[in-house]
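F.,

This is the one I mentioned.
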C-alpha cells in the first residue's frame, strides 16, 4: 500500500481555509427565529398550490432550461430571456459567477463584513478573497475597493443593501464606482433585499446593468418572496456572462417545485408586496424603538437590523435566546436581527432595552 493511499484521498489545501459548517442550535418550537432573514409569513395560497401540484411529478427531472420562469422574469424586467440565468438560490448563482470568472491566482473583492458566503465560495473556486473593511459608518468603502483592484481582480461583489449592516449605496456613488472599474472585471450587484428598500436614492441594479456589459445583478426568491427553502435565485447579465452561468450551474439544480412556486409568486406579487410593506413598517417601528433606547442604528434598507456590540455580542445573543428569540451573532462584531412577527420583534426589543440599561 502506498503512503498516499494510507493517508486517504488528497483534498485541495484551499479547503483548509474554509470554516466547517456548524449547525446552530435548532430554535425551540416556541422560539422566534430571527437569524436568517427569512420572511416570517406562510406561503400565499396560489404559491403553495403550485408547489403542491409540482410535487406530484418529482419522479421526473425539472425543465433544465427553467423556461417558464425565465420568460416570466425577462418580461417583467424588459430584458432578453438570454440575459437571465437561474440557480439554486442566489448563493448558487454567485458560486457559478465565481466559477465562471476566477480560479487559482485570481482575486475576488468584496466589502467586509458582508454576506458570509462571499469568502467561502471564492475559496471553493481556489481564488483569493480580498475583503475591504466597511467605513466607520458601516458603509461600503467604494474608493478603497477601487484601490484594491489589481491585474488579478476578476469579480467584485457589491451588496446593496449590505448584509448584515443594512446600509444601502446611493445611485450617484454606485455609478461613479461602476464607471471606474475596468471593463474586464465583473461587478455583481447583489440585491437579495431590494424589495425592502424605501430610500429613493438607492438605484435598481437592472437600470445599471443595461448599458454596462460588466455589471450583473443578483436576485433571490428567498427573502421577500418567502421561498428560502425551495432554493431559487437568478442573475440578470449580458451575454457571454449569462451563457457562462448556464455552463457552470449544477444541472437540474432548480427543482420543478421551485420553478413553479417562483412563477406563482411573481403572479401573486401584489399580495406578496403587501406583506413586504408590513415588514418595512415593522422595521421602522423596531429602529425607532432601538433609537429611543439609546442604541446607534444604521438606516437599514433590508429586513433586518444591525447592532454593533463588539465584545458583548455573544452575551446579547444569549440574552435573546433566553428570552425566546434566536438572532445572528458575529462574535466580536455585532448582532443581526431579522424583522419577524411583531411578537418576536417585541421580545427582541424588550431584551435590547434591559441589556442597554445594564450596560
Ligand atoms: C446578500 C445576500 N445574497 C445572497 C443570499 C443568498 O440567498 P439565497 O441563496 O437563499 O438566494 C443571501 C442570504 O442570506 C444574502 O444575504
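My design for it:
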Amino acid at each position: 500500500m502506498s503512503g498516499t493511499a494510507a493517508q486517504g484521498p488528497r483534498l485541495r489545501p484551499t479547503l483548509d481555509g474554509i470554516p466547517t459548517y456548524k449547525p446552530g442550535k435548532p430554535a425551540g418550537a416556541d422560539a422566534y427565529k430571527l437569524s436568517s432573514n427569512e420572511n416570517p409569513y406562510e406561503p400565499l395560497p396560489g404559491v403553495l398550490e403550485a408547489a403542491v401540484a409540482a410535487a406530484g411529478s418529482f419522479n421526473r427531472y425539472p425543465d433544465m432550461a427553467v423556461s417558464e420562469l425565465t420568460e416570466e422574469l425577462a418580461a417583467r424586467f424588459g430584458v432578453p430571456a438570454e440575459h437571465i440565468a437561474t440557480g439554486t438560490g442566489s448563493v448558487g448563482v454567485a458560486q457559478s459567477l465565481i466559477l465562471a470568472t476566477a480560479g487559482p491566482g485570481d482575486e475576488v473583492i468584496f466589502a467586509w463584513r458582508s454576506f458570509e458566503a462571499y469568502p467561502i465560495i471564492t475559496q471553493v473556486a481556489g481564488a483569493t478573497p480580498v475583503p475591504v473593511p466597511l467605513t466607520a459608518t458601516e458603509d461600503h468603502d467604494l474608493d478603497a475597493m477601487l484601490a484594491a483592484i489589481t491585474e488579478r481582480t476578476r469579480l467584485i461583489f457589491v451588496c446593496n443593501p449590505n448584509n448584515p449592516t443594512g446600509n444601502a449605496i446611493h445611485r450617484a456613488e454606485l455609478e461613479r464606482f461602476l464607471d471606474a472599474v475596468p471593463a474586464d472585471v465583473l461587478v455583481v450587484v447583489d440585491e437579495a433585499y431590494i424589495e425592502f428598500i424605501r430610500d429613493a436614492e438607492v438605484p435598481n441594479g437592472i437600470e445599471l446593468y443595461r448599458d454596462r456589459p460588466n455589471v450583473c445583478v443578483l436576485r433571490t426568491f428567498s427573502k421577500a418572496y418567502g421561498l428560502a427553502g425551495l432554493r431559487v435565485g437568478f442573475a440578470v447579465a449580458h451575454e457571454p456572462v449569462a451563457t457562462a452561468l448556464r455552463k457552470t450551474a449544477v444541472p437540474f439544480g432548480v427543482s420543478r417545485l421551485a420553478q413553479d412556486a417562483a412563477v406563482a409568486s411573481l403572479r401573486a406579487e401584489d399580495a406578496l408586496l403587501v406583506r413586504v410593506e408590513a415588514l418595512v413598517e415593522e422595521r421602522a417601528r423596531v429602529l425607532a424603538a432601538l433609537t429611543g433606547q439609546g442604541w446607534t442604528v444604521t438606516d437599514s434598507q433590508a429586513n433586518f437590523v444591525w447592532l454593533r456590540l463588539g465584545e458583548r455580542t455573544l452575551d446579547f445573543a444569549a440574552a435573546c435566546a433566553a428570552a425566546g428569540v434566536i438572532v445572528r451573532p458575529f462574535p466580536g462584531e455585532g448582532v443581526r436581527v431579522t424583522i419577524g412577527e411583531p411578537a418576536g420583534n417585541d421580545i427582541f426589543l424588550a431584551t435590547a432595552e434591559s441589556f442597554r440599561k445594564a450596560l
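The radius of gyration is 21 Å.

Talk soon.
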